[in-house]
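Hi support team,

I've been running sequence recovery on a batch of backbones for a student project. Most finish fine, but this one hangs at about 90% for roughly twenty minutes before it completes. I'm not sure whether the input is malformed or the queue is just slow. I've pasted the structure tokens below so you can try to reproduce it. Let me know if you need the job ID as well.

Thanks,
M.K.
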């Protein structure tokens, strides 16, 4: 790899509400960008309201672009499994519906292989109860602009205080070695 662009990889993750997943990965050292969106459904350019109806097949996701010279895909996925509940089918806490399912949406065979290895470790650690789907990414659409950087822009909003902050705190306490250094 001679070119810096070759060091950037991208994986799409569904861990429930994308506000939570985005807030966690925005704090991970080596993550270049996090974009909330919708993946693996069947409607063109779905809206948040359509996705929330549960009739589009989409999952709320984040696209995580990361520098592989700073953090591995395996580490990204370990953080993912630890900062949401991969054992709850179609729900995360009070958020219920297929759009909140746990999923890893890969772009190539190498990502698929790494995802399945990390999933196997998570299955062993959680007694075989993990329901995270591992599928090729299909039909990705970015979420509306007001969802981007939601926690950073709305830290005092109720959901952010009571749900998102807890996931961020768990990341910071469990994976401090991967936390972005304050500048």
């Amino acid at each position: 790899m001679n070119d810096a662009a070759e060091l950037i990889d991208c994986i799409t993750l569904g861990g429930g509400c994308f506000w939570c997943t985005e807030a966690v990965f925005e704090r991970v050292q080596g993550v270049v960008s996090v974009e909330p969106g919708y993946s693996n459904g069947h409607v063109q350019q779905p809206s948040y309201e359509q996705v929330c109806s549960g009739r589009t097949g989409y999952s709320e996701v984040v696209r995580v672009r990361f520098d592989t010279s700073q953090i591995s895909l395996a580490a990204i996925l370990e953080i993912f499994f630890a900062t949401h509940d991969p054992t709850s089918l179609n729900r995360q806490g009070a958020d219920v519906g297929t759009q909140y399912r746990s999923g890893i949406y890969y772009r190539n065979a190498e990502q698929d292989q790494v995802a399945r290895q990390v999933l196997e470790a998570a299955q062993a650690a959680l007694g075989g109860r993990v329901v995270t789907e591992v599928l090729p990414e299909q039909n990705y659409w970015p979420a509306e602009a007001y969802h981007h950087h939601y926690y950073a822009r709305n830290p005092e909003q109720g959901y952010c205080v009571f749900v998102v902050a807890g996931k961020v705190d768990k990341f910071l306490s469990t994976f401090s070695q991967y936390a972005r250094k304050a500048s």
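--
Follow-up from support: It reproduced on our side and the slowdown came from queue contention, not your input. Helices lie at 18-25, 48-52, 73-82, 109-125, 150-153, 158-174. No action needed from you.
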